[in-house]
Predict the structure.
Amino acid sequence: MRLRKIAAAILILVLTLALVGAIAELPSPDERVSQSALTQRIIGKGVVETGATNLVAAVLFDYRAFDTLGEATVIFAAVAGVVLMFYHAPLHPSAIGLSILAKRSLDVIGPFVFVAGMYIVVYGHISPGGGFQGGVILATLTILISIVYGLQEERRLLDPRFKTALESSAALLFMTVAFVGVFSGEYFLSNLGAGFFRGHPGSVLSGGAIPLLNVAIGLKVGAGLALVFYSMVKKEPE
Amino acid sequence: MFWRSTLLENTIVSILLVFLVVAAATAISFRNVLNSVLALSVFSITLAVLFVLYQAPDAAMAEAVVGAGLVMALFLVTISKTRAEEEAD
């Protein structure tokens, strides 16, 4: 036990030194932006090459879209594992929810939260945000509904089979957009080279395939995380 | 980019960083698991604020919705289920 604590302390010390060394590489306040070639290329030509003004979304869904595919795969595998684990748990029948005051409050505010989540997803290529953030907001909205209205009502509104279908079709949308690049002669997950609509940077209809990928990732993450929460709460303790 | 330009920015960022470390330290020092989870939620929100101050709004949004919303809800569900089974013994 003592040896384990010493080993843990040494590991923490090594990691701290590595992180401090990495922070020392960050640009000083005098030069606001890092001068490496990669940063200058993305900042200089990001809007022209991708058509999206949010450069984080341009990196996530155009330059490094393959890593986003990996992240979507990880979330898909996690959701599949959790649903598999809790598959045979029965739904407890008496899930009543909160008082009528809370229910009426969610009646008023729920649609606005939904619109806010969809806004963050759809405008992900213009303003900060994106598919992942908006998708998690939508999943949190389903958690709110299942707390306020009770699990039975939430299951009636959003059937788990509907959530599964939504998640799978969003994954299929991502792969379809990705393979358009291959079938048009360019590479896998190609954006403007594959003929997607470039548009005027700064408007909603711009950025080529980036809004499509944003919507796909948003629906996938939202439906998947809502499914995870539903699977974990479904069996109430007696 | 660790030290900012003005003294006010430096003060605010330093206070938030110290608060971050304090929140993390209290998260591991509680006996009750529920209190630990709440301290972790405070940690997540402070981290989201720090991300905004370091001009990374996408990361701040992701940290806020995931850390302070979804993960904490899942933690609380897990704690309620395991505690109910413990009290049934």
